[in-house]
Design goal:
By secondary structure, this protein is an alpha/beta fold. It has helices spanning 24-34, 96-104, 113-119, 152-157, 165-176, 237-250, 299-309, 344-356, 395-402, 490-498, 503-506, 509-518, 523-535, 538-545, 548-559; strands spanning 2-9, 12-19, 39-48, 51-52, 69-77, 163-164, 219-221, 226-227, 231-234, 255-265, 271-281, 284-286, 291-293, 312-320, 374-380, 386-393, 406-408, 414-417, 429-434, 440-444, 448-450, 455-461. The strands form six sheets. A seven-stranded mixed β-barrel has the order 9-11-10-14-15-16-22, surrounded by six helices. The chain has a five-stranded mixed sheet with strand order 2-1-5-3-4, with helices on one face. The protein has a three-stranded mixed sheet with strand order 7-19-20, with no helix packed on it. Helix 1 runs antiparallel to helix 2 (96-104), helix 10 (490-498) crosses helix 15 and helix 13 (523-535) packs antiparallel against helix 14 (538-545). It starts with a strand and ends with a helix.
Amino acid sequence: MGLIVRFRSKDGMYRLSGEGTTMLQQLIEELVLTKLPPIDPETLAASVNGSVIGNFSSTLSELGFVNGQMVELTYSKVDPEADRSLNGKATPTTSAAANINISSKGNTVNQLPVDNLLDEEKGLIPRERSSLCKHTAKGMCEYCSPLPPWDGAYHAEHNIKHISYHSHLSHLNSEINHNESSSYIPPLQSSDFKVKNPCPSGHSPWPKGICSKCQPSGITLKRQTYRMIDHVEFQNSIMMNSFIDAWRKSGVQRIGLLLGTYDKYQKTPLGIKAKVEAIYEFPQHDWDDGIKLEDWIDEEKVVNLCNNLGLMPLGVIFTDLSDAGNGDGSVICKRHADSFFLSSLEIIFAVNWQLKYPNIAKYSETGFFSSKFVTCVITGNLNGEIDINCYQASETAEALVKADLICASTHPNQMFIKEQTNERYVPDIMYQMINEYGLEVKKNAKPSFPVEYLLVSLTHGFPEEEGGMFAKINGWQIENRGYLGELAGMEQLKKILSQGISLQDLQDWHLLLWLGEQDVLSKEEFKLAVDSVREGNSDKFQVLLHSAGWRTLETICSMS
């Protein structure tokens, strides 16, 4: 049943409609964005019959609202002339709607450190003086002034296919929030292709009713022009060779979780790179043409160890390799422009991981926007060499999966659109393409469309000087490789101890994970081990070697 809520303020009376399940926050956000003058969000308060409402995230039913309910609003206005820059233009301020959304969750949005660093940078692209410049050395004109970080000509000249996430964000911000604007609108809006339920109009939900207020708009698929991550940097080749060795020894495929950190990427304006320090190999069942993930029972232990080491899950990596049979180590090239780069099934797989690890964004009303999670494939290139390809699914792909609109097809380069049902409304979906006459046209995406519209490609490489947190080979067995007869255990540790263990020997992700699973070291002692590796601290390592838990570990090894 629809409800009319009346809001009384010093600037007038406003009427908004909602449902019993509508949050008060949604109505207040609509007021702030569309009806009220610029206000100071810190001063906004709402009350009913003199009782202050402390939680805007409560629904109208939970607040006991009835049809025609009166809500009193108090706030302080923001003077448009108060915040003026030296050039006389107003400086943008944070909107009340954005502040209401964040405060309703009871905490602030904590972005990644790399995002906070790039937020402080303008990312302008410097240019040298050209022959068209007529000014002195200290002057500047339109031919030599810096370019914005999203400049298309610069990216085309340097063969950069996608602008960076923060360049995209800066571009949106410059278009939506002009300097003379006194209010701020969050520039990042996540796509939503679901039918709104309940509908603001108050009619029966789909399939019994639908209107322009709850019906999603038609979808036009385009290639995404930006990417959340620009480059994937593997810190050393030892890690990659060790991962590929599983295929070399068995002939079956392998999948792993990329662990590492994010940093600024200097080769594109306001770019971000994922720095891969280690690969965790999931519990899995492998074949020569596929992989099945088993239950990830030690997920919590893996994530906790990551957090303690200052690392985080960055993406997944899997092999798709087949020996060419030439006896020279060459492999078959399966993925290319005439077949596919990432299949429709793999794109949905990538989307599910991206939804599991969303990108925290303070410039989004929801506090999240898309994902930085990457998907990498180790496969054969056109020269028959083993190569790495890195991708992300687009933000549109995430929204299509969330709305349950797409599924994989039997053709790996085609994504299938699901049929409409009583539970699933399917809007009109088109995609843009260049026809045989070189003209841009729209084509119906039903029943299927090319997967390239949902795919974003990334660059990858290795640092000039390989290293990283886990750069030494100590021969420790990798987890979940029992099918190869490779099992980590006390015998391995005994061998390392007999040679005199060093801090470098301990700097192994797989060894640390195994130590944490043995429950021999106390929490404090295991923290010493982790801290000594993370900080490269020899003093803490020596304290660990003289601890009671480590001596117990040595005793167990000597008896094995």
